[in-house]
User: Which sequence fits this backbone?
């Protein structure tokens, strides 16, 4: 019988969290992310896809640029954060 900790998916998750831990901790302490720019780029790409097929490229650019801005998301974080204990990886 296999123990739950021996699941490859769980090992991969632990490796990913361990690899990205400095960045995760920086976000938890500061609340700063690049989510705003990622969201804006996604909206621009979606609008550009919707505008694809306009006969006049100028109209396509105007359609993409005329999108209203997205409202900011609340990124408030808890004040006290504790760093988790390191995981014991196999392999």
Assistant:
């Amino acid at each position: 019988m296999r123990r739950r900790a021996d699941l490859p998916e769980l090992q991969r998750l632990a490796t990913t969290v361990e690899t990205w831990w400095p960045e995760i901790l920086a976000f938890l302490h500061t609340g700063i992310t690049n989510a705003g720019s990622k969201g804006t780029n996604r909206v621009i790409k979606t609008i550009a896809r919707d505008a694809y097929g306009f006969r006049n490229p100028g109209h396509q650019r105007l359609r993409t640029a005329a999108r209203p801005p997205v409202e900011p998301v609340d990124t408030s974080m808890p004040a006290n954060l504790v760093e988790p204990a390191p995981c014991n990886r196999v392999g």
Notes: The chain has a mean pLDDT of 76.
